[in-house]
Amino acid sequence: MAWDWQIFCRETATGEQIPHCFGKGGDETYLDWLLSAWGWTLTVSVSALVVALVTGLLIGTLRTLPNSPWLSRFANAWVELFRNIPLLVQLFLWYFVLPGIFPALQAIPSIYLVILALGLFTSARVAEQVRAGIQALPRGQRYAGMAMGFSTTQTYRYVLLPMALRIVIPPLTSESMNILKNSSVAFAVSIAELTFFARQSGEETSAPVQMYLAVTILYAISAFAINRIMAFIEKKTRVPGFVVAGGVGGGH
Amino acid sequence: MLGNLDLSFFSWDLLAPFVIRGLIFSLWLTAVATIGGMVFGTILALMRLSGKKALEIPAAAYVNTMRSIPLVMVLLWFYLLIPFAIGRPIGAEMSAVVTFIAFEAAYFSEIVRAGIQSIPKGQVNAGYALGMSYQQNMKLVVLPQAFRNMLPVFLTQTIILFQDTSLVYAIGAYDMLKGFETAGKNLGRPVEAYLLAAVLYFLMCLALSALVRRIQLKVQIIR
Questions:
Q1: Could you tell me which of A44, A176, B41, B159 has the fewest CB atoms within 10 Å of its CB?
Q2: Inter-chain residue contact A251 with B194, CB threshold 8 Å
Q3: ipTM of this predicted complex?
């Protein structure tokens, strides 16, 4: 099988070769499509990461609150709920089931539903890491906050969270890379991201190897970039003289 | 408010013909991928810790490649390439099995590696001091303790693996999710079918994680 890389310069609708590979006007080459698919993958991943970090931080903190059994129970239930249903099934819940039950949701563009599904799915994992991070701190830190006359909010804001968040950066790095990889399930609800592009263009062009290869490389580059950005953040926020042992991140 | 959701529509008799085949496949895939992934994962881990560059580099390259690609893409790749490699189509289900073993081996190898590295170096040296060979040392001293240390992570990974089996959707293999989907489409109740699928996955995973917690308490080595 000859490896025809010119295939990326082909127009998606008419199939004619476009010089310089980038379509002008209404034309779109496979290269154009690939790049826009990459954009969608990054958009979904980064937005979902924001949702996951904000929600996960909140839920993870709630789980460690000393005197609020109902809040901790709510947070525990949250984690169990979002951790024990496969991501693809959760995506279908957001995409098919919830709009089926609440017709008002049908007006929401599917991209937002995907971001919510992926973000909340990951929030359970982030919450676990945040809880572990807070609990990894010596108990004396909490007592020190109390002895200073801090309220619970102040203890968390000024004593516990600044340290705990630094501890959880390594596991959060692997969660961020997981979110990028997990964004691939969006193909199932026809978001035009990389995996969707790979399936679709592979079929249209009968050159799946080239298409898959391009997509795989873009995933690897993106994952590597996230890894470097997180390493940079870790380095910038390091407290001098305090060495944090790297956590082992599980999952995919 | 609740639209036209009607869960009473489905009975087990109505669902069973669609779901049971998929449920069995999902469980079978999980079991085969766990065992296969464990075997190949252990081999990969031993290669990476062998101290021989010729073994370390390919093993590390394999593991890192697998871990940086989404599982869905790996499924698509294998589904595309296996027929080329063996010269005939093997079907989505068999392709999924091969993919999962190859993919999980990379993840399990990291768990095994961490498990082996959790054994103090002194134990290995003690084994050598007793005149044990590398094989004897691994078999009698290191691996039994390593497996025990990594059991909780290993079981958690198996639950994740079970959840990931739903991704065979990408190549159209008939798993539990597909069973519910087919039932929903054929009986004209897709919303309820997806909801029931989610409930069943949730209950199964919840039961498994409760089991993992109990095992964790039992096998913990108290130092």
A1: B159
A2: no
A3: 0.88
